[in-house]
Amino acid sequence: MLRRWLPSIVIAGVGVFLVGVWISDGRIAAAVIMGVLFAAGAVVLSPRGFPSSISDAEAREASARDGRPIVYWRPGCPYCARLRVSLGRHASRLHWVDIWQDPAGAASVRDVTGGDETVPTVVTAGDSFVNPSPGLVRRLTL
């Protein structure tokens, strides 16, 4: 469980340290701005910054039923965060599987990528994409 939150904890910790340094140097405005940016980064990279994850089996069943793509991701992945932020409100149209939370999801990614756990990996009924552009994934959801 800690592994899933570690990137956010590190970013928040670095942010708190830097804000303290800047406040002690009298750079209050910079400290406030950077504090907000570090806090936003910690939220975006946290598991809470993504739609609720489901298991690989649930995602496959739901995708077969509704035709929506499956996104395999992991917390702390900057490419996953970029995809999530770029999709905005459309992110909820996808089925999200956290490969650190679901070993079957990690195995599915290794099957697609030839043994690596490269994320984000997007799987549709007929194709799969490793680290696809947000535009491509947006087109798949419409």
UniProtKB/TrEMBL annotation:
> What keywords are annotated for this sequence in UniProt?
Membrane, Transmembrane, Transmembrane helix
| Listed transmembrane segments | 5-22, 28-45
- This protein's superkingdom? Bacteria
Pfam families in alphabetical order? Glutaredoxin
Which intervals hold domain Glutaredoxin? Answer: 71-127
Classification via SUPFAM superfamilies: Thioredoxin-like
User: What protein am I looking at?
Assistant: Glutaredoxin
| Native source species | Paractinoplanes atraurantiacus
Lineage of origin: Bacteria, Bacillati, Actinomycetota, Actinomycetes, Micromonosporales
